[in-house]
């Protein structure tokens, strides 16, 4: 492009120079003037061409830039696509177990946690004691270990007061550099015999399993005892057995009571019967006596009295029997 | 003690109902559920395991079958009745292994179990 425009310039310059020459010689030629004009026109055209050329160049540059940016964009997209794919492939997918799963009821879970809290975790007193011993065992110069231990020792129980920890510190670390801390800790910690009153759980041992005495007092042990007594525990319920015995006892008593009542009733009936008999007897005797009296008065004969004496003697005898019976009756009443 | 239960209950049958129904036969006043719950939790005690081993129970095929049967305690709805879930389930699992059943005779293993589980009971809730 340079040579192309240079030629035009040269031609213009030459034409111009020739024209100037001719003008200076006072002999201007129209031919040269025409030549200059065409050269100038050519140059103008050439310049226009240069302009389009430059524009094209700019455009090309722009396009190149665009293409590189697009290239980078494509590359980025591709790399992101690749990484995304990798991510997707490597993502941990929740694998649902093939075993049957069970719905967990929130309240049930909480109540279970509350129930097993006593048996699955030692009381906080033991934990505190453990934490403080751990701390005291940590060598002091090794500050990094201590820093590592301290949070683990104190975080589990936020309610834990600093007193027990401090109370152990003076004995565990006699060479404690800061004497001030030792002094304050001595002031804040209680003597051991007093702290036992405040925390009755402090001396307790914890086992995460049932102890022997519990096993020995359980259902299996009681069944073993039954077996040793020669009782088949199957279908045998000591409580029901106890109840059954108590019931039997009660029934027996009730029966006795009933019998007693019946006996008393019989006795009463017998007495009533006797009473009735006696009354009848009395009535009959009175009637007889009346009849006798009537007969005697009707007869009015003293000689007959001797004949009639036996009847009068008979009631007398009866009377005797009667008193005898009466006596018996009295005896019965006393019973 | 436990071998009595194996004699009385056929282990092929399903685990006892929860809660025990009234018409279920009782053993000394206790339902099968109660007795088996008690026994499976007794297994949490390492000394008791040692005692069972010393009674030569852990080598009896019937007892081993009973231990396999007791595994229903590791699944709902029975799971939530375990008061000592950690050691109970661990021992129940270990007892399924022939090797463990033999080794529990040794007091060393008992001691190690005791130490491990005591430590675990203190440490388990501290882990992040």
TrEMBL record, chain A:
<keyword id="KW-0010">Activator</keyword>
<dbReference type="GO" id="GO:0016592">
    <property type="term" value="C:mediator complex"/>
</dbReference>
<dbReference type="GO" id="GO:0006357">
    <property type="term" value="P:regulation of transcription by RNA polymerase II"/>
</dbReference>
<comment type="similarity">
    <text>Belongs to the Mediator complex subunit 4 family.</text>
</comment>
<protein>
    <recommendedName>
        <fullName>Mediator of RNA polymerase II transcription subunit 4</fullName>
    </recommendedName>
</protein>
<feature type="region of interest" description="Disordered">
    <location>
        <begin position="232"/>
        <end position="335"/>
    </location>
</feature>
<dbReference type="InterPro" id="IPR019258">
    <property type="entry name" value="Mediator_Med4"/>
</dbReference>
<keyword id="KW-0804">Transcription</keyword>
<feature type="compositionally biased region" description="Low complexity">
    <location>
        <begin position="176"/>
        <end position="187"/>
    </location>
</feature>
<comment type="function">
    <text>Component of the Mediator complex, a coactivator involved in the regulated transcription of nearly all RNA polymerase II-dependent genes. Mediator functions as a bridge to convey information from gene-specific regulatory proteins to the basal RNA polymerase II transcription machinery. Mediator is recruited to promoters by direct interactions with regulatory proteins and serves as a scaffold for the assembly of a functional preinitiation complex with RNA polymerase II and the general transcription factors.</text>
</comment>
<feature type="region of interest" description="Disordered">
    <location>
        <begin position="133"/>
        <end position="187"/>
    </location>
</feature>
<dbReference type="Pfam" id="PF10018">
    <property type="entry name" value="Med4"/>
</dbReference>
<dbReference type="GO" id="GO:0070847">
    <property type="term" value="C:core mediator complex"/>
</dbReference>
<feature type="compositionally biased region" description="Basic and acidic residues">
    <location>
        <begin position="241"/>
        <end position="291"/>
    </location>
</feature>
<keyword id="KW-0539">Nucleus</keyword>
<keyword id="KW-0805">Transcription regulation</keyword>
<feature type="compositionally biased region" description="Polar residues">
    <location>
        <begin position="133"/>
        <end position="163"/>
    </location>
</feature>
<comment type="subunit">
    <text>Component of the Mediator complex.</text>
</comment>
<dbReference type="GO" id="GO:0003712">
    <property type="term" value="F:transcription coregulator activity"/>
</dbReference>
<feature type="compositionally biased region" description="Acidic residues">
    <location>
        <begin position="326"/>
        <end position="335"/>
    </location>
</feature>
UniProtKB/TrEMBL annotation, chain B:
<dbReference type="GO" id="GO:0016592">
    <property type="term" value="C:mediator complex"/>
</dbReference>
<keyword id="KW-0805">Transcription regulation</keyword>
<keyword id="KW-0539">Nucleus</keyword>
<comment type="function">
    <text>Component of the Mediator complex, a coactivator involved in the regulated transcription of nearly all RNA polymerase II-dependent genes. Mediator functions as a bridge to convey information from gene-specific regulatory proteins to the basal RNA polymerase II transcription machinery. Mediator is recruited to promoters by direct interactions with regulatory proteins and serves as a scaffold for the assembly of a functional preinitiation complex with RNA polymerase II and the general transcription factors.</text>
</comment>
<dbReference type="GO" id="GO:0006355">
    <property type="term" value="P:regulation of DNA-templated transcription"/>
</dbReference>
<comment type="similarity">
    <text>Belongs to the Mediator complex subunit 31 family.</text>
</comment>
<dbReference type="GO" id="GO:0003712">
    <property type="term" value="F:transcription coregulator activity"/>
</dbReference>
<dbReference type="InterPro" id="IPR038089">
    <property type="entry name" value="Med31_sf"/>
</dbReference>
<feature type="region of interest" description="Disordered">
    <location>
        <begin position="1"/>
        <end position="27"/>
    </location>
</feature>
<keyword id="KW-0804">Transcription</keyword>
<comment type="subunit">
    <text>Component of the Mediator complex.</text>
</comment>
<keyword id="KW-0010">Activator</keyword>
<protein>
    <recommendedName>
        <fullName>Mediator of RNA polymerase II transcription subunit 31</fullName>
    </recommendedName>
</protein>
<dbReference type="InterPro" id="IPR008831">
    <property type="entry name" value="Mediator_Med31"/>
</dbReference>
<dbReference type="Pfam" id="PF05669">
    <property type="entry name" value="Med31"/>
</dbReference>
């Amino acid at each position: 492009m340079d040579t192309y425009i240079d030629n035009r310039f040269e031609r213009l310059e030459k034409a111009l120079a020739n024209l100037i020459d001719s003008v200076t010689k006072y002999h201007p030629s129209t031919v040269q003037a025409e030549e200059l004009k065409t050269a100038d026109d050519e140059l103008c055209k050439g310049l226009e061409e240069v302009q389009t050329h430059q524009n094209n160049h700019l455009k090309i540059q722009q396009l190149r830039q665009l293409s590189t940016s697009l290239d980078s964009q494509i590359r980025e997209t591709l790399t992101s696509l690749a990484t995304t794919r990798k991510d997707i492939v490597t993502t941990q997918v929740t694998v649902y177990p093939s075993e049957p799963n069970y719905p967990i009821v929130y309240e049930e879970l909480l109540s279970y946690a509350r129930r097993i809290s006593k048996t699955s975790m030692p009381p906080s007193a033991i934990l505190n004691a453990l934490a403080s011993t751990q701390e005291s065992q940590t060598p002091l110069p090794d500050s990094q270990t201590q820093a590592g231990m301290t949070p683990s020792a104190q975080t589990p129980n936020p309610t834990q007061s600093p007193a027990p920890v401090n109370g152990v510190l003076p004995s565990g670390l006699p060479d404690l550099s800061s004497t001030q801390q030792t002094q304050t800790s001595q002031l804040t910690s209680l003597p051991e015999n007093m702290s036992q009153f405040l925390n009755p759980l402090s001396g307790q041992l914890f086992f995460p399993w049932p102890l022997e005495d519990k096993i020995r007092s359980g259902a299996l042990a009681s069944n073993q005892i039954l077996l040793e007594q020669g009782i088949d525990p199957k279908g045998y319920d000591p409580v029901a057995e106890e109840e059954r015995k108590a019931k039997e006892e009660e029934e027996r008593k009730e029966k006795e009571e009933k019998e007693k009542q019946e006996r008393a009733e019989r006795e009463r009936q017998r007495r009533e019967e006797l009473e009735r008999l006696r009354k009848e007897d009395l009535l009959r005797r009175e009637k007889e006596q009346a009849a006798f009296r009537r007969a005697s008065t009707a007869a009015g004969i003293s000689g007959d009295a001797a004949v009639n004496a036996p009847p009068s003697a008979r009631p007398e005898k009866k009377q005797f029997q009667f008193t005898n019976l009466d006596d018996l009756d009295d005896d019965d009443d006393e019973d | 003690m436990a071998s009595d239960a194996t004699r009385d209950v056929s282990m092929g049958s399903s685990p006892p109902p929860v809660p025990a129904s009234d018409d279920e036969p009782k053993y000394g006043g206790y339902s099968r559920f109660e007795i088996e719950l008690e026994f499976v939790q007794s297994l949490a005690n390492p000394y008791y395991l040692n005692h069972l081993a010393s009674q030569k129970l852990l080598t009896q095929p019937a007892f081993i079958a009973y231990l396999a049967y007791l595994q229903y305690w590791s699944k709902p709805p029975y799971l939530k009745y375990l008061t000592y879930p950690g050691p109970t389930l661990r021992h129940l699992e270990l007892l399924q292994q022939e090797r463990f059943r033999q080794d529990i005779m040794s007091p060393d293993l008992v001691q190690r179990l005791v130490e491990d589980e005591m430590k675990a009971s203190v440490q388990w809730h501290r882990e992040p």
